[in-house]
Amino acid sequence: MSSKWTFRSKVNEIGWLAVLFAAVGAVIALRYLTGLPGTQWWQYLYVFCAAAGVFFIGHFLLQLVLVLPLSRWSSRAGRVVALGLTSILLVSLVTDTFVYQQYRFHINWAMVDLALVGGREVFAFSAGMMMKIAFLVVCLTIVSLILIWATTKVTSSVLWPCVGILMGYLVVNAVNAYSVSQNVKPVTVLAERIPLYYPVRANTLLSKFGLVAVGEEKLSLSEKVGSFHYPINKLILGKGANFNVLILAIDSLRADIVDARTMPNLTKLQQQAMVFRDHYSAGNATRSGVFGLFYGLPPFYWQSALSTNVPSSLVSGFQQAGYEISAFTTATLQRPEFYATVFSSVRPLRMSSDKGNSVAERDQDSVDDFEDWLKHRDPNQKFMSFMFLDSVHALDFPKGLDVPYDDYWKEVDRLKLSPDFDPREYFNRYKNAAYWQDVLIGRVLRILEKNGRLDNTVVVVTSDHGEEFNDSKLNYWGHNGNFSDAQIKIPLVIAWPGMPAQQITHRTTAYDVGATLLKRVLAVQNPIEDFSVGKDLFDPKGREVFFVGSYNEDAIVAGDEVLLIKMSGALEGHSLKDWKEIDAAPLKKWVPAYLQMRGKYRQ
């Protein structure tokens, strides 16, 4: 009985320390609301309950693993470990609040590694600041001592305080799930502000009851809630050129397959247009690639754009100039949520192709709809259109198509893919799909010419990302796997009325496309950095570095080298050409620029 009672008392003590730590931590976490305009009392309550739940669960589990075993051997040793744990967590939490207030993101391993390895060469602190930091650490250690002392004096059961915290945590998760389904931005913008908080989403369940609002009527552009400061200043337009703009993107089209055999129409267009030979996407996935193309920002701003529904400057700028905006995408704009980001200010909005049984047929439907739309619109109304075709991504083409490669993989079976798999037939199928897209590119150009639009339309042909066929010999297939040439180097061909055909050999990025269109078509007076991290495409000064991203990783591309920043924050060096691992140390000098960029467009 004595042993059982001692075990219960230790668990009770651990529970009280976790409760007290959660309460103190949740109060500190209210600092994360800094910079949120028009903060309401209930938002403070939401953050308090969410943070308390996260901190209670985390602290309690850590104590069970680290403190409880020692407490059975020595109560004093257990309390010393509990003191150290609590002090470290409080110091980390307070430090993170300062980082978030400065940069609008949380501490990650890239920062820790830079501080440990780079030291004073990267992070320089004055003597006065060092004294303040030391004083703060001492104060937090004293707070931790008080919490430890308090737990030894409380003898009542911790059950109900624990239940109260967990119930509050469940409630805020339920509120978040509903708010995500209804696009309630004042709630959804709070999640990113709380460290280690990953609230539940229940769109699939709620959709069964008709509670998921993905319709256009739920978006409110007037309610600028959140931490997205974009553009930095309102766009000021000058006297622009009288050009239409058509951005024609082919999903998953890599740069090195544009040749006369595979894509004859695009090759012919290259002879009359500007070809950018060293062009890169903003990422290795559709979301990051399209986001970078339209926003001119690195993909790590995606969540900020989604939670606030702030449209891309490329779209809003052309709207401000009186252009009609349209989208002709084969895949749905609901996933990724381009309807709520890039095109959030465009209504009505064509959401996807609705005809055809195959991707190839639905691509044709996109072109059909574009032709019908162009034929029935006011010829005096300028337009900016986005066409996004999907057959290359799906490796699809019409059955009766006379394809250029007969020896192609007749049935795609990705289970067969391995380091030793011969990619030739697989790659040939991919190129046959590209040939089908080229057929549609030729048709789009004829549609523009037939309607008298070709001579006054800037036609941009590009992609969202590349596609790998084990190019690196590291068993990478497809995309969203690494940031090598095969996955992020993409074609860019621009037919610009009045501009001669030329080959551009300096490095360019997707960020540069929107910046160039806004500057040269709309004569935007703002400096480019107000709305983009890009440059004018025709600026021959190369890009020293640029940032790319996927759904869960970022990277810094510097010349022919890449610094990969993993989801955990760990840093790795790689070759851009073949993704072989290299020494990351020389590339870490770019991390401060990366950290600065992560906060530049956040309030």
Task: Give a structural overview.
Residues 1-5, 118-122 and 214-225 have low confidence and may be disordered. The chain is built from 19 helices and 16 strands. It is α/β, with parallel strands linked by helices. The protein has helices at 2-29, 41-66, 68-73, 75-103, 109-118, 127-153, 159-182, 185-188, 203-207, 264-270, 286-295, 302-308, 313-320, 359-375, 391-394, 424-450, 485-488, 510-520, 591-600, and strands at 244-250, 274-276, 279-280, 324-329, 383-389, 457-463, 468-469, 477-478, 493-495, 502-504, 508-509, 545-549, 554-558, 561-565, 571-575, 581-582. The radius of gyration is 27 Å and the shape is elongated. Strands 4-5-1-6-9-2-10 form a seven-stranded mixed β-sheet, sandwiched between helices.
By DSSP (H or I, 4+ residues per run), the number of helices equals: 19
Q: Strand fraction band?
A: 5-15%
Radius of gyration: 27 Å
Q: What is the residue-mean pLDDT, rounded to a whole number?
A: 90
Largest sheet: 7 strands, mixed
Strand order of the largest sheet: 4-5-1-6-9-2-10
* Structure classification: alpha/beta
Query: Which segments are poorly predicted (pLDDT under 50) over 5 or more consecutive residues?
Result: 1-5, 118-122, 214-225
Kindly state the number of beta strands: 16
C-alpha end-to-end distance? 58 Å
- Shape assignment: elongated
Instruction: Specify the helix fraction band.
Output: 40-55%
